[in-house]
Amino acid sequence: MRHLILGAALALMLPLSAQAQDAGDAAAGEKAFAPCKACHAFGKNGVGPDLKGVVGRKAGTHEGYNYSAALKGSGLTWDEANLKEWLKDPKAKVPGNKMVYPGLKDDKKLSDLIAYLKTQS
Questions:
Q1: Which member of 30, 60, 78, 81 lies 3.0 to 4.6 Å from 71 by CB, making a disulfide possible if both were Cys?
Q2: Per-residue model confidence as pLDDT tens digits over 48-106
Q3: Which domains, from first to last, does the chain contain?
Q4: Considering the entire predicted model, what is its pTM?
Q5: Residues 6+ apart with CB under 8 A from 43
């Protein structure tokens, strides 16, 4: 009986452990952001739009940036799930957008990068 209770307790804790791992490491995310700096900054538009406060923002709406019609019409809000899909493969997430980035395929780095973006509000 004790083994059954212990097994049930461990099974209940597994999803919590997975969520903690998905939360990402903002410090590692800052390093993962390095290639993004070629086009993006926090606090000003560049080749790409300003990313300050991007988490929670409606896609294609930051003032002063000329977005593609595809992104403006996407109806997306940059929550964690949409950001993860976008950063993994921007052309698949919003066909016709003008971002030339090929995508980040590493799920850990994606989680870290999103954690970092969340610190830049």
A1: 60
A2: 999 999 999 999 999 999 999 999 999 999 999 999 999 999 999 999 999 999 999 99
A3: 25-119 (1.10.760.10)
A4: 0.80
A5: 50, 52
